[in-house]
Please model this.
Amino acid sequence: MLTALVFSAIFGWVVILALVVAVLALARQVGVLHMRVAPAGALTTAGGPAVGAQSGAIPATTLDGAAVVIGGPAPGSALRLLMFVSATCPLCKNLIPMAKSFARDERVQLIFIGDDTPDAQRAMIAQQGLGGYQFINGPDVGQAYAVGKLPYAILLDADGVILSKGLVNSREHLESLVIAHEMGVSSVQDYIDGLTPA
Model:
């Protein structure tokens, strides 16, 4: 009986050591995969003005009736993030709090643009706490930038130059717009495509 007890204790320790080795090997593989996975960035689309192009000044009206100009030079302004959203888009509603936090952290002027009924947009503004932001409602701005899918974001500088743009659905995607601008590329994907395999 004593030999059976000793054998079971030794067997238990062998199993535990095998599990420790397996967990360490798995952790190493996760690390390797993490290094190989490319960072996700905003998905750029072919339509509309290209990154690096001067955006035209588009006269627009906020939902409150104030006349504004979207795009074009805005001397003395910070980076401007045009955020195209819809009251009927669940992904947009999830992204709005992230966009607000991102704009605050990055010191970016955030402008929301949609094309829906005024009542639907007002309900979304109330629900999402967007009262302090400019909200343009109408098709003109989206058509000028050839926005076909939502949520979509465009980053402009003070001169009205398009720094980066693309479909976004996470904070990481929003951050990739600023990162692409800081790296001097049109998108994170372009940067990754330019890397030569080691």
Q: What stands out?
A: Residues 1-37 form one domain. The radius of gyration is 25 Å.
